[in-house]
Amino acid sequence: MAFLKDEEQAEDFAQDIFVKLWEKRSFLPEIKNKNAYLYRMAKNALYKYFEVSCRKEFTSQQLPDLPNLETLEDVLLAKEQEDLINLAIEKMPPQRKTIFLLSRREGISNEEIASRLHLSKRTVETHISAALSDIRKVLNVFSLFF
After folding, report:
1. How far apart are the C-alpha atoms of 51 and 55, rounded to whole Å?
2. Which domains does the chain have, with CATH numbers?
3. pLDDT of the chain, 146 residues: tens digit per residue
4. Are 128 and 109 in contact (CB under 8 A)?
5. Nearest-angstrom CA–CA distance, 47 and 142
6. Measured distance CA(129)–CA(96) in Å, rounded
7. pTM above 0.70, yes or no
8. Three-class SS state of 55
């Protein structure tokens, strides 16, 4: 749904993937990590969809630069990373989340954040450091898969 932006189309994709999974059910006992296998099937289906969509768009508009599969993969990878970062931010303790969002999304200085929240500048710096550490941990785990 996050990539397609269309609930009905996402449901169609999910149904197609489970049909393919059903057709290959005889191989399922051999697969060690079924979650990773299912994830890869979904990812490949998205790549194929975007590649076909780009070709159709190219044909209809005669655009000179058709994004290739690597470019699409980069876009999907960036979107997945963004989603993971947002999830990590949402799971932060409330004060850390507030401080991090004020600093990174609104561009407010540490001194101003400290003043607004009635905290010391060092406390603000500690929270930002911890937030960045949380995000790095999530991204390190993510990078193991890619």
Report:
1. 6
2. 1-67 (no CATH), 69-146 (1.10.10.10)
3. 776 777 888 788 788 888 888 888 888 888 888 888 888 888 888 878 777 777 766 565 555 555 566 677 788 888 888 888 999 999 999 999 999 999 998 999 999 999 999 999 999 999 999 999 999 988 888 777 66
4. no
5. 19
6. 10
7. no
8. helix
Nearest Cα neighbor of 50 from 16, 73, 78, 21 is 73
Phi-psi region of 65 (alpha: psi -120 to 50; beta: other; left: phi over 0): beta
Alpha helices in the chain (DSSP H): 7-23, 34-61, 69-90, 94-100, 110-117, 121-145
Cα–Cα distance between 69 and 48 in angstroms, integer? 8
Beta strands in the chain (DSSP E): none
Cβ contact 3:79 at 8 Å: yes
Asked whether the beta carbons of 96 and 127 are under 8 A apart, the reply is yes
Question: Residue 88's closest CA among 143, 137, 121?
Answer: 137
Dig out the tokens for 45 from the structure: 């289906």
Q: Which amino acid is at 120?
A: S
Contacts of 138 (CB under 8 A, 6+ apart): 84, 85, 87, 88
